Design the sequence.
């Protein structure tokens, strides 16, 4: 077992973990952060996307021990003081989900995308989300939601 200390959604956790434990399993099974989901386990679907030090990563694609000393944000830590993150609001308002399984990962990836490119074209949004699969194929509204979130953050910057 290896001792790790990780900040997750603003709280610090120290745990003994198996060196082979995946970050997604640490989040879900040890910390109970079940908002982060597993869709494939082969780093294809993006359902497990979280932020590591502010950048999106697929948490099934890294070990919990690799997060030692780092800061992880999951979908559960995205809202502040009970207020939804603008990307969560945009997904809600644009009906950008069907079964909802891909949604946590989509939102985490989309937030990182706008951080990198605050004013993306539709094409850039599609490329930015290409590592995230929606089995319900609701891509049209997902792209609309990301564009809406980009627009609203620009208005609030103005
Ligand atoms: S569960 Fe991680 S990419 Fe599918
Ligand atoms: S909404 Fe069902 S997988 Fe995307």
Sequence:
């Amino acid at each position: 077992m290896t001792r790790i200390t990780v900040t997750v959604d603003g709280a610090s956790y120290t745990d003994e973990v198996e060196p082979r434990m995946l970050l997604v399993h640490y989040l879900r099974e040890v910390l109970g952060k079940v908002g982060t989901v597993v869709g494939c386990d082969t780093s294809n679907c993006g359902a497990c996307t979280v932020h590591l030090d502010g950048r999106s990563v697929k948490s099934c694609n890294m070990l919990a021990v690799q997060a030692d000393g780092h800061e992880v944000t999951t979908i559960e830590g995205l809202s502040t003081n009970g207020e939804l993150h603008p990307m969560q609001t945009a997904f809600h308002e644009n009906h950008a989900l069907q079964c909802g399984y891909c949604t946590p990962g989509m939102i985490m990836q989309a937030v990182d995308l706008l951080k990198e490119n605050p004013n993306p074209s539709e094409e850039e949004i599609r490329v930015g989300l290409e590592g995230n699969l929606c089995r319900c194929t609701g891509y049209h509204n997902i792209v609309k939601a990301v564009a809406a979130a980009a627009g609203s953050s620009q208005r609030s910057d103005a």
Notes: The domain at 2-77 is CATH 3.10.20.30 (Ubiquitin-like (UB roll)). The helical segments are 23-30, 86-93, 103-116, 122-128, 139-157. The longest helix spans residues 139-157. DSSP finds five helices and five strands in the chain.
